[in-house]
Amino acid sequence: MSQLPQLIEHSHYLEFVVPDGKHDEAYWSQFLKSMVATVEQTGKTRILVQRPAQDPSERVEGMVIYRMALRTAEAFGVSVRIAIQSPVAHEDSFFETVATNRGAMIKVDKNRAALVAWLSEGD
Asked: 105 pairs with which residues across the strands?
């Protein structure tokens, strides 16, 4: 399995930096488990996920995105805000749509500053 994302702990949010490469559903499931464990351990309820630029051949399959969005919503609901910085935000909006329709607080964008500001809302 690929290396899990690097964790950077900021004062009011957790940041996970996803490494380059093709990641399968098992990878994303393990990543979700590590996010849940880190939130429980730190008590921080704001997460920024940084996705790398991808080769089109390394894109995540649509059904994997769908299932992971459902699992993320189930794991966190509205208790955790998750911002995803993605160079292909227009494609990752499917994840945001599915997860928010299931009650999660997810935002996908290319703009890091806007995402960090969104994470601070409601504090």
From this structure: 81
In a domain, 81, yes or no: yes
Distance, in Å, from the CA atom of 24 to the CA atom of 42, rounded to the nearest integer, reads 27
Give how far Cα 17 sits from Cα of 4, 27, 42, 74, Å: 9, 14, 17, 22
Entry pTM: 0.90
Asked if residues 41 and 54 have their Cβ atoms less than 8 Å apart, the reply is: no
**Cα separation of 50 and 48, whole Å?**
6
Average pLDDT (41-56) is 88
Let me know if residue 1 belongs to a domain.
no
- The number of domains in the chain is 1
The CATH number for 89's domain is 3.30.750.24
Are residues 69 and 103 in contact, defined by beta-carbon separation less than 8 angstroms?
no
Tokens (6 digits) for 95? 């994840």
